[in-house]
């Protein structure tokens, strides 16, 4: 089966000769993948290339068998959805329902169908009772869920979350994590770039570690996050559960059953 996302020999530079991504090769299928690394590791650049906001300097990226070099951002919006880190960068309408309908209207060109898609997405994130509210009357956590709904309403195959847990309370972190699990169950390819290692451990099956534009590790989450030397090189913390377990010397085999 052809992968949903295929990356071959990807190099990218903003300035000639200074690469921020170097020789990235990987494939992604319908599952959940976290991309971790310090600021400057190349995470945001990588997902912008997947979204079509940037084009590879060298190499190729295919999404659903289509080379991103051959498609516009608008065309890729049907396949790849990006939830921004800051809701303020994404929200621009004066009613919740209009915000969520904007994408579907541009893709499907059908007002009734777009409305139905929007209501379904709002129900999925728990905001169905806020359809006529102004987005900025919502809490910050609710605005994040609104942005997620706006992407889900377009029904993309690939959904990218940029730092989904930043400024979120514990309840909403759990809510977003549950959405990741539900979307994965429904056959979506979920990608998140994040610094939240506990969130990664709990909700993502696969983890990629980027460091200075290079792919340091790629594998099952529980296996990657146990590699203390890799995480240290990348400037990352181990998940809390691993820290505690190393202190008490307990076997994690049962905890790691996923």
TrEMBL record:
SMART domains: AAA (SM00382). Signal peptide: none annotated. It comes from the Bacteria. Its main location: membrane. Pfam families: ABC_tran (PF00005). The keyword Cytoplasm does not apply. InterPro entries: AAA+_ATPase (IPR003593), ABC_transporter-like_ATP-bd (IPR003439), ABC_transpr_CbiO/EcfA_su (IPR015856), ECF_ABC_transporter_ATP-bd (IPR050095), P-loop_NTPase (IPR027417). It is found in: Cell membrane. One of its GO terms (cellular component) is ATP-binding cassette (ABC) transporter complex. CDD domains: ABC_cobalt_CbiO_domain1. Keywords: ATP-binding, Cell membrane, Membrane, Nucleotide-binding, Translocase, Transport. One of its GO terms (molecular function) is ATP binding. Residues 5-237 form the ABC transporter domain. Belongs to the ABC transporter superfamily. PANTHER family: ABC-TYPE COBALT TRANSPORT SYSTEM, ATPASE COMPONENT, HEAVY METAL TRANSPORTER. This is Cobalt ABC transporter ATP-binding protein.
